[in-house]
Design brief:
alpha+beta, seven-stranded mixed beta sheet, four-stranded antiparallel beta sheet, 61% helix, 7% strand, extended
């Protein structure tokens, strides 16, 4: 037996349900129990006199029933903690009744004893099982209490980075203080249309629920966003409005959200301020009503504000600021336009310096001022009004600096010429004396008289501050009024969604009147919230027919009565304000006397008589009475207001005039909903009927009235609740402060929701979900066909107490804790099964291991014994061998020693004998050499002596001869002097002298000859003498040598003795040298062998390096090839991007076209416009041409404004012309962009075709050209005649005078005819020029082929000459011929120059290649000369240099190409702009008649040179019937089943061929235009039918292929038969119409994709994710109030088979319609992309789907889709690759996620997923069973670090709306046109075959 302790309070006024909890004895499953208040500093604890149950009731508002047998060993509980609020601990032993302490162990391993209350013995609450931690909905927790809620929020916020959590109907939003990528348009699209419980919690889910209920229930909605300052209320409201603007389809048109966001800078600057808790705290509340029309599109908005904190204008606490706008003004004081405001630093003004913190870190007030002014401009507040606002604000600042001087105790005065007051009066435009007077005086009126009374300095200061507050409040209201005007819509409002962004519960150290009003408002909102929660809970029970018992919930009506009832706090405050001598102290005494000890919610502080305490629903708050009366009265003297109203500054009186226009706050419509157009700007303001009553309504009274109006509005709507939580006070990202969080959870009503849910049946399961989850607890015999009865039977067995559950119609309801009990039983059974499986498997494994070990041991023994025997035998053999080896070794050693001694003896003998012989030989050799030496020495001495003697003799001779010469010279000088004298004396003797001179000359000649002879004789003498002397000298020397030789013999003998001694030494040295030589030789041989080995190693290294070089070269080539492939892929991707962009533009164009048609239809319905005299169309255009041509968008878009100018009555219509003109402009821009993209695409295709054409080019045939030229000339002449006739007819028509108004120069008919005349004249001139050019070409051709002298050419030429009888024509032909020749010559010259340039460039390339080759050869030769190591290094260096140069060249080429592309893009933009301007200019010059009757931009159809054959003939008047029968009324199903595929396309093409045969361009244009418009009409009419869209996509493509196949272009004629080539078009080139058809096919394809998406969308999530294809693999976890869609396949639920059946249907329809196989592959690829993207997006937004078992389900489903692709032979379509992200996500759910190796494997595996997606899946991974483990935060961080360098998109979701660019590969038909038969069922009897 176990004892049960029940804690109740039966004498409670309201009956309560017991709060019962059930315990399960298991370590893994933890249960919860009663909530225990954590012991926090300054928090409430149980009083000594009250029981724990009383305390719990007082604190939590509920009774508690505790079962003490829950607490056993290993159970985990929550215990209070002063730091972490709640701490987890584990029981170390079972709890028994009577125990006073619990033995616990904390998570960090510390043991402690937890003491129980000796009176109540309350036990701590138990923890939820780990499987339930992190749930999306807090009501899904098995045990609901404060620690469980706090822990769940913390786990989701810190570990999973999830900021949103449901708590029943409340969305809890925690501010992450970080930008998260979860608010993009892709996320909005993912949540759009989803049920609230199907996706993960999000603000978008709440917004979608509100939007859906508004449209479904036709009831207005409200989203109530509350929370502390800085919790993110404004941001949440902004995202909700963004969602409405996006899903309503009006985000790009109404821009209401942008306007509301534009108002944010204004409202924040005038309504936000810095507080101690938040740098940008909203000091007012606002309620924004977003209005919708009947189609639920946003049409406008309206803003209401509540309780602006006016006191902040004049007073700020420490570390706080005034409103931002004042500091922005001060920061911008230096601007020129603000000089007149005479502003300065914020510390100069009294109103901005009180807080001591004028600057906010990270905020630039000057920059914020710029944003504020820009926002004012956007909302229509003009610059003059802005300056007026700033003047008023500056005046308030200067007013705050006004000082007063006391005269006495009851009067004061302003100092004379006081500068601040002077500036204030100048800015406000009022008189200084008057304002100074009324600041110090007031007027008192009695019944009989009025008198003026001075006031004291204190009252004057209060009056000054009240005036400043009043001015600011009125300015605030004026700005709000103008914001509402900007957001106002003229269209009638059908419904609205209100977003309430209001302050949360506030409690500070000092709480004043503002906190009192805020907490009063929160009390009212909490009451409304409690009633709504209670109502929903009651409705749920009644719906399920559960017996309903009243749930006790905390009703705060007593607290509200305390505040607002008669004699309540507000009533007493108003009464005290009316008292002449009323004060805060007297009011406090009245409060004490009235409520103290009479109301349990009112208390008096112990240490104060000027404060009171109110017990609010969230906490006790102590209010200081000081300032209550002044703030409530908000007294402003009427005389001061009157002075301001008389201001010359026009804006100031306007502020006070607006007060009189404000409606009463109680004025509402009978329905309770206030219309948008009549909504008051600020309901808090009462109606001021007279000036005397204007200021008698107190602030508290006004606020109470506005709050009542707000509650009426909220009660008339369906509320949705968002509770914003501020996780910490320091704005740290993803940091969770448990103390602050639990404070806010208690204050915002989240715990109250939990308590109400826990009091009843919080856990709810459908019968199918219960059966699927707990099927393991049933036996086979328990399973019945009726699931409901099966569940009842099982529950009755499992839970004996029937009060613990209830059976509803569709669900089973469980009390708190029962699901945990069932989970425990389920886990126990699964654990027992696991243990049994483990036991069996482990036994089998151990037996298998034992057998393997035994077998291995036997094998080892056998091998060891064999090894030992072999070792012993080997030992014996080795012993015998060793003895034999010793015998032979010893014999060898002895023999070796003997031989060594013998060889040594012989060697010594030989050396000795040789030495002796050598000595003897050396002695003989020395003697011989000594004789030779003596001979030479003696000869040298004799020669030296002779040389000395000869030198002395020569010297003596020289001296003697010198002496003789001197004497002779002296004589000659004497003779010379004597001759001169004689010459002077005997001048006449010259002749004689000349004779004597001749004689002397002759004598000299003789003397010279004699002298020569004498010299010869002397030489011969000297030689003989020299010989004799040398002989004598030699003899003397021989004598001396003989003497010396005798002396040296003795010395030589001595030397011989010395040499013998040296010889002995040398011999000994020789021996040592020989020994060293032998040693050196041995070492050298070893060194040589080592060098050889090193050489071989170097060779191998060389070969290895060569191999590496080759490998590197191969790798480089491969890398270059890969790079080339990558560049090719990149180019393909760029082409696909361009194609996608072009197709998106087409899609946008078609959407705008449809929008334009809708607007036109609406306009036609609204207004009937008479046509201004319709004129007959020109003859050159078809009268049957459809109104909707392929260029009709521009025609009609520009036609309508012109018609509207002609009709003044159009101004009265309600059509939004600005929107219409904007659409028109957008259409023209898209047309221009489309044309530029098309030109670019055509250019690329032409380049490709030109390259192909060059290869297949063949020489033309001259005869065919001549024949064509003659035919062309004849046709042009006939056209010329035709044009002349039409010209004459038009001139006659102009000369006729039928009516003056018609033929007048300004008349429309006159302008039409004049324009036609001009166009015809231009056409005539063009035809003439063509005739002249053709004739000149004929003449040139005749001259070129004249040598052939053929009769045909002569005949043709003769005919041409005969026809050119006119001399002028012949002259013109001659001139044309000359010009043609010049043109041909210039072309020839240009071609020649280009050829030469190409040749020169080729030569240059050849030369460069030769130089490169030579350089390479030189390098090779140099490398071969180098050693191997240097050769390898040089080759590597050379290769690196070459690759670097190549890379640089490629980079230069790439940069050039980029520059060229950028340049071309700029040129394209410029040209597109010019073309747009030209088109606009041309349209302005066209008359209205032309716009109506003539098509703008007709397609030019050039003529072609081909023959024609075979076609279908129809009459012109039957064209509309043809289009009607063949297109508009054709049923695709009958054609697809009974007729050949593409039959309509073939019929239309054969009709085109007939028009081509007739050479009727009007007929071709009309037929093609009617066909295109007919297809558009039928798609617009039946565009949601897949068969229709598929049928016309197939036929449009076939028609396009026919136009290509039979166009006559060689590129399209390759696969044609000769007969098909004969059917080619001959006269017209329809390339432009092919482009139009291609665009039409793209639009049809996109429409087909949209139809596919709409059909598949509802199936994907259910079939791919929710349906259990493999039954029993995935379990269902307990869910909360926000039920997700059931994962069990109920009746009507889509399954995977549904998707596959739908895919089969699509495929069969496309095949029946004859769609091209390549196009079918593209459609299938798109379908699979949609399936994969939608599935993955839902997986990323649903935490319940991220589990191991769900990964298995997804992989199985994907394999089934792949099998479908194989069956249809579509594996090469690229569809499988589109599922790769989904496959990898499923693998990620299944792989191991623990170690670093797992992280590396995940990073390499998930290459198709982005980093954000991988982290999101890991964060969302949720175990379904206890045996699975959660992903650790450290592992996720490891993944993030590894993926840090991956460059991928930060976007979380895939773009499910993405459409791949479609291509239409040319697919020629083999069907012969002449074999096609037209069935009678088509109703085309009027067509005949030709």
């Amino acid at each position: 037996m176990t004892s049960v302790v029940l804690l109740r309070k039966p004498e409670r006024e309201i009956p309560k349900l017991p709060y019962e909890l059930v315990y399960t004895n298991t370590r893994e499953m933890e249960m919860c129990s009663v909530e225990i208040e954590p012991v926090l500093p300054g928090k409430e604890t149980p009083a000594a006199s009250e029981s724990a149950e009383d305390f719990c009731y007082r604190r939590y508002g509920m009774e508690i029933e505790v079962l003490d047998y829950m607490y056993v060993k290993y159970a985990r509980v929550w215990i209070p903690d002063p730091e972490e609020v709640w701490k987890s601990a584990e029981l170390l032993k079972d709890y028994k009744p009577g125990d006073k302490v619990l033995q616990l162990r904390l998570e960090e391993g510390k043991d402690l004893e937890y003491s129980l209350d000796p009176k109540t013995k309350e036990l701590p609450p138990l923890r939820n099982p780990d499987i339930l931690v992190g749930e999306n909905d807090l009501t899904a927790l098995s045990y609901l209490h404060e620690p469980a809620v706090l822990h769940n929020l913390k786990v989701r916020f810190i570990d999973s980075k999830l900021i949103y959590t449901y708590c029943g109907i409340v969305l809890v939003a925690i501010n992450p203080y970080e930008q998260l990528p979860i608010y993009g348009e892709d996320i909005i699209n993912a949540y759009s249309g989803q049920n609230m419980g199907d996706m993960d919690p999000h603000i978008f889910a709440v917004a979608e629920e509100a939007y859906k209920q508004m449209a479904r229930d036709e009831r207005n909605q409200s989203i109530i966003v509350s929370g502390e300052s800085g919790a993110g209320k404004t941001v949440s409201a902004k995202y909700a409005m963004r969602y409405f603007a996006t899903v309503s389809g009006s985000a790009s048109e109404a821009n209401v959200e942008e306007k509301v966001l534009a108002s944010n800078p204004i409202m924040e600057s005038i309504g936000n301020a810095k507080t101690t808790r938040n740098d940008n705290s909203s000091r007012f509340g606002k309620y924004i009503e977003i209005g919708f029309d009947k189609r639920y599109r946003i049409i406008g908005a309206n803003m209401r504000t509540y309780l602006l904190e006016k006191s902040r204008v004049v007073f700020q606490a420490e570390e706080e600021r005034n409103y931002h706008i004042f500091y922005q003004l001060c920061a911008s004081a230096a601007l020129p336009e603000f000089k007149t405001l005479r502003l300065g630093n914020a510390n100069y003004f009294h109103y901005t310096k009180q807080g001591g913190s004028p600057v906010i870190d990270g905020v630039d007030d000057a920059k914020e001022m710029v944003n504020t002014r820009q926002a004012c401009t956007l909302l229509g507040i003009s610059d003059s009004y802005q300056m007026g606002i700033f003047r008023i604000l500056a005046g308030i600042l200067h007013l705050g600096n006004v000082e007063f001087a006391s005269r006495d105790s009851d009067s004061c005065t302003v100092p004379p010429k006081h500068e601040p007051l002077t500036i204030f009066c100048d800015l406000m435009g009022v008189e200084y004396e008057e304002m100074a007077h009324w600041l110090c005086h007031r007027k008192l009126a009695t019944a009989t008289e009025t008198y003026i009374k001075p006031i004291s300095k204190l009252h004057a200061i209060n009056a000054r501050d009240a005036l400043a507050k009043h001015i600011y409040a009125n300015l605030f209201n004026w700005i709000v009024d103008h914001v509402n005007k900007a957001l106002h819509a003229t269209v009638k409002q059908h419904s609205f969604i209100g977003v309430l962004d209001i302050y949360g519960f506030e409690t500070f150290e000092i709480n004043s009147f503002e906190q009192f009003c805020i907490n009063y408002a929160n009390e009212k909102l909490q009451q409304q919230f409690n009633m709504h929660v209670f109502k929903l809970e009651q409705e749920e029970y009644m719906k399920e027919q559960i017996p309903w018992t009243l749930i006790d919930f905390y009703d705060n009506q007593p607290c509200i009565n305390l505040i607002e009832a008669k004699m309540g706090v507000l009533d007493l405050l108003d009464e005290e304000c009316k008292m002449p001598k009323g004060s805060d102290d007297s009011w406090a005494q009245k409060l004490y006397n009235t409520h103290l000890n009479k109301c349990a919610l009112f208390e008096k502080p112990r240490m104060s008589n000027k404060a009171f305490i109110i017990k609010h629903f969230a906490d006790k708050v102590e209010y200081q009475c000081e300032g209550f009366l002044e703030k409530n009265k908000d007294t402003v003297y009427e005389e001061q207001i009157r002075v301001l109203k008389s201001s010359k500054f026009k804006l100031l009186p306007e502020l006070f005039q607006d007060e009189e226009k404000v409606l009463s706050p109680t004025s509402a419509t009978p329905s309770g909903r206030v219309p948008l157009s009549r909504m008051p700007v600020k309901p808090a303001k009462a109606r001021p009927g007279q000036a005397s009553k204007e200021h008698k309504k107190t602030v508290g009274h006004q606020f109470r009235n506005s709050l009542h109006l707000l509650m009426e509005t909220l009660n008339a709507t369906t509320p949705h609740y968002v509770r914003c939580i501020k996780p910490n006070d320091f704005k740290f990202p993803f940091t969770f402060d448990e103390k602050r969080a639990v404070q806010q959870l208690r204050a915002c009503g989240v715990l109250e929701t939990i308590r109400i849910s826990a009091a009843g049946f919080p856990s709810r399961w459908t019968y199918q979900e219960f059966f699927s989850r707990y099927r393991v607890l049933m036996k086979q015999k328990d399973v019945l066909g009726d699931r409901k009865q099966t569940c009842k039977n099982v529950l009755e067995k499992l839970i004996q107490d029937k009060d613990k559950y209830q059976f509803g119609k569709t669900k089973i309801f469980f009390r708190a804790g029962q699901v945990a009990y069932l989970e425990k039983i389920r886990a126990d059974k699964l654990r027992a099964a696991c243990i049994r499986i483990q036991k069996t498997i482990r036994g089998w494994l151990m037996r298998k291991k034992y057998m393997r070990m035994r077998k291995a041991a036997i094998t080892i023994q056998r091998h060891v014994r064999g090894y030992q025997a072999r070792c012993y035998a080997k030992f014996l053999r080795r012993t015998q061998a060793a003895i034999t080896i010793q015998k032979f070794q010893r014999m060898y050693v002895v023999r070796k020693r003997y031989q060594c001694m013998r060889n040594a003896t012989i060697a010594l003998q030989a050396l000795l004998r040789g030495y002796m012989v050598r000595n003897k030989y050396q002695m003989m050799l020395r003697e011989h050499k000594s004789v030779v030496i003596q001979k030479h020495v003696r000869g040298w001495l004799a020669r030296r002596r002779y040389r000395r003697t000869l030198h002395a003799i020569v010297y003596l001779q020289c001296c003697y001869r010198r002496m003789m010469a001197k004497r002779e010279l002296k004589k000659l000088k004497i003779e010379a002097r004597s001759v001169e004298r004689y010459k002077k004396l005997h001048i006449g003797l010259e002749n004689k002298i000349m004779q004597l001179q001749r004689k002397i000359d002759e004598q000299n000649k003789e003397y010279k000859s004699l002298l020569e002879k004498m010299n010869n004789l002397e030489i011969t003498y000297s030689t003989e003498t020299e010989k004799l002397r040398s002989d004598v000298e030699r003899l003397r020397m021989s004598e001396e040598e003989a003497r010396n030789a005798t002396n040296r013999v003795i010395s030589l003998q001595e030397e011989i003795a010395k040499l013998r001694k040296e010889l002995h030494q040398t011999q000994s040295e020789k021996k040592s040298i020989e020994e060293w030589a032998d040693k050196y030789k041995h070492e050298t041989e070893q060194l040589v062998s080592e060098l050889k080995e090193q050489n071989s190693l170097l060779k191998t290294e060389k070969e290895e390096l060569n191999r590496r070089i080759h490998d590197q070269a191969r790798e480089i080539t491969e890398s270059m090839e890969k790079k080339l492939v990558e560049e090719t892929k990149q180019l393909e991707l760029d082409l696909n991007d361009e194609r996608l962009r072009y197709q998106n533009l087409l899609n946008e164009f078609s959407r705008l076209e449809e929008r334009y048609d809708d607007l036109k239809d609406e306009m036609n319905l609204m207004v009937s416009i008479p046509k201004p005299g319709h004129k007959r169309t020109d003859s050159t255009h078809s009268s049957n041409e459809s109104e909707y041509t392929f260029s009709s968008e521009i025609t009609e878009a520009e036609d309508l404004p012109l018609r509207m100018e002609q009709e003044p009555s159009e101004k009265k219509t309600a059509l939004d012309m600005s929107l219409f003109l904007k659409l028109q402009k957008r259409v023209s821009e898209l047309e221009q962009e489309k044309q530029s993209l098309q030109d670019e695409l055509d250019r690329k295709e032409e380049q490709a075709l030109r390259a192909k054409a060059k290869e297949e080019e063949r020489p033309p045939i001259r005869g065919a050209e001549l024949e064509y030229e003659s035919l062309k000339r004849q046709e042009l002449e006939s056209e010329n005649k035709k044009l002349k006739n039409e010209l004459n007819e038009l001139q006659k028509a102009l000369t006729e005078t039928r009516a003056p108004e018609v033929t007048a120069p300004g008349a429309p008919a006159y302008r039409v005819l004049l324009d036609q005349l001009t166009s015809v004249s231009e056409e005539l001139e063009v035809r003439k020029e063509e005739v002249l050019i053709l004739r000149s070409q004929l003449v040139s051709q005749k001259e070129a082929i004249q040598p052939k002298h053929t009769m045909t050419d002569a005949t043709i030429l003769l005919e041409d000459v005969q026809k050119m009888k006119d001399k002028g024509e012949i002259a013109q032909a001659y001139i044309g011929l000359k010009e043609t020749n010049r043109l041909l010559e210039s072309q020839l010259q240009s071609q020649k120059k280009s050829h030469e340039n190409e040749l020169e460039s080729l030569r240059g390339e050849i030369q460069s290649l030769k130089e490169e080759n030579n350089r390479q050869q030189q390098l090779l030769a140099q490398n071969l000369q180098l050693p191997p190591e240097a050769r390898i290094e040089a080759s590597l260096q050379h290769e690196i240099t070459r690759l670097t140069n190549e890379n640089l060249d490629l980079m230069e080429q790439l940069e050039k190409q980029d520059k060229t592309v950028r340049k071309l893009k700029k040129q394209l933009k410029v040209f597109a702009k010019k073309i747009g301007e030209l088109e606009v200019g041309q349209m302005e010059n066209i008359s209205p008649g032309q716009i109506i009757d003539e098509p703008i931009r007709p397609v030019n159809i050039p003529r072609k040179e081909k023959d024609f054959q075979g076609m279908l003939e129809y009459k012109k008047e039957d064209e509309q019937k043809l289009v009607k029968n063949l297109i508009l009324e054709l049923k695709p199903r009958g054609v697809a089943v009974n007729l050949i595929p593409g039959l309509p396309a073939y019929i239309l093409f054969m009709c085109v061929r007939h028009a081509d045969y007739l050479n009727d361009d009007q007929k071709v244009r009309s037929l093609l235009t009617s066909t295109i418009n007919g297809i558009k009409k039928v798609l617009k009419k039946r565009g949601d039918d897949f068969e229709t869209v598929s049928f016309w996509l197939s036929n449009t493509c076939r028609f396009l292929h026919c136009l290509k196949q039979y166009s006559g272009e060689e590129g399209f004629m390759k696969h044609n038969t000769p007969r098909q080539n004969e059917h080619c078009l001959t006269n017209f080139d329809l390339a432009e119409y092919r482009q139009v058809l291609s665009d039409l096919a793209i639009q049809i394809y996109q429409q087909l994709v949209r139809v596919l998406e709409n059909i598949l969308q509802p199936m994907i999530v259910s079939g791919m994710l929710e349906h259990e294809t493999i039954q029993g693999v995935s379990g269902v976890k307990p869910t909360g109030l926000r039920k997700r869609t059931s994962s069990i396949a109920d009746e009507g639920t889509y399954t995977l088979d549904s998707i596959i059946r739908q895919l089969n249907s699509f495929h069969s329809v496309m095949c029946q319609h004859g769609m091209d196989p390549e196009l079918i592959k593209q459609v299938v690829k798109q379908m699979f992309y949609i399936i994969g993207a939608v599935t993955l997006n839902n997986l990323l937004l649903r935490k319940d789907m991220c589990s191991w078992s769900k990964g298995m389900q997804i992989r199985y489903n994907v394999s089934q889709l792949e099998e479908w692709l194989r069956d249809k032979n579509l594996m090469n379509s690229g569809a499988k690759e589109t599922l790769e992200p989904l496959i990898q996500a499923a693998q990620l759910l299944q792989v191991k996620k623990k170690t670093d190796e797992d992280a590396e494997a995940i990073c390499s595996m998930c290459n198709a997923l982005t980093t954000a997606q991988i982290v999101k899946v890991l964060n969302l991974y949720t175990p379904v069973n206890e045996f699975e483990e959660r992903v650790l935060v450290s592992f996720i961080r490891t993944i993030q670090v590894r993926l840090r360098d991956r460059k991928d998109s930060p976007q979380l979701l895939m773009d499910a709306k993405h459409i791949f660019p479609v291509t239409f590969p040319f697919n020629p038909s083999s069907l012969a046109l002449e074999t096609i038969q037209i069935p009678a069922s088509l109703g085309l009897g009027f067509i005949s075959r030709v």
